[in-house]
Amino acid sequence: MSSEPTRILLTGAPGSGKTTALMKIVGALHGARIAGFYTEEIREAGRRQGFRWHRLDGRSGTLAHVDIKSRYRVSKYGVDIESFDRDAVAAIDPEITTADLFAVDEIGKMECFSDRFVQTIRRLFASDAHVLATVALKGGGLIQEVKSYPTVRLLHLTTGNRDRITREVAEMLAAAMK
């Protein structure tokens, strides 16, 4: 790895393609050891019922769902912090996971209910690891904190620029990890 870690945050409005861009970038980095997770909607009968996380090693679980009873809530969704902490957060912990690149989708309100996630993200950004993450467009706390780190390159995705940015970031990370 290069001596200076590359830290890229993708932000944008909902539906701008942040997760898709992250996954295309990860897919373009053949041969790299990449650890992390991405999120996706859970849809039933055409209606969003929650969100699922998927680790890049194939494990998956439910992050939030309308049927989850939890003190942690975003809108109508209860957030399952316990399984997220146990199974998803470990994939991005630089103290227990070895990787050339850590991919995190996303640093958002639901994820930030987890104290373990918040501390792991802070350790990740303090480490010498390369990081590619998506981050909510709006929000305080950790969301604002990571955007203000001096070593971060914050890129705002739109439907008009996402393909170009996806290509540029994949090239940038490939070069950084040589």
Polypeptide structure, described:
This protein is an alpha/beta fold and 178 residues long. The protein has a domain at 7-39 and 89-176: P-loop containing nucleotide triphosphate hydrolases (Rossmann fold, 3-Layer(aba) Sandwich). The chain is 30% helix and 30% strand. The chain contains five helices and nine strands. The chain has a nine-stranded mixed beta sheet, with helices on both faces. The termini are close together.
Kindly report how far apart the N and C termini lie.
Answer: 6 Å
Helix content: 25-40%
CATH class of the domain at 7-39 and 89-176: Alpha Beta
Q: Please count the helical segments.
A: 5
Order of helices and strands: EHEEEEEHEHEHEH
Spans where pLDDT lies below 50 across 5 or more residues = none
Strand content: 25-35%
Major sheet size, sense and barrel closure: 9 strands, mixed
**Spatial order of the strands forming the largest sheet:** 5-6-4-3-2-7-8-1-9
Mean pLDDT score? 95
Label the CATH architecture of the domain at 7-39 and 89-176.
Answer: 3-Layer(aba) Sandwich
3D shape:
globular
Keywords:
nine-stranded mixed β-sheet; 178 residues; 9 strands; globular; Rossmann fold; alpha/beta; 30% strand; single chain; 5 helices
Concise account of the structure shown:
It contains five helices and nine strands. With 178 residues, the protein is of the alpha/beta class. Helix 1 runs parallel beside helix 5.
List the helices and strands and how they pair.
Layout: E1 7-11, H1 18-28, E2 34-44, E3 47-55, E4 60-65, E5 73-74, E6 77-79, H2 81-88, E7 101-107, H3 115-126, E8 130-135, H4 142-148, E9 152-156, H5 162-176
Parallel strand pairs: 1-8, 1-9, 2-7, 7-8
Antiparallel strand pairs: 2-3, 3-4, 4-6, 5-6
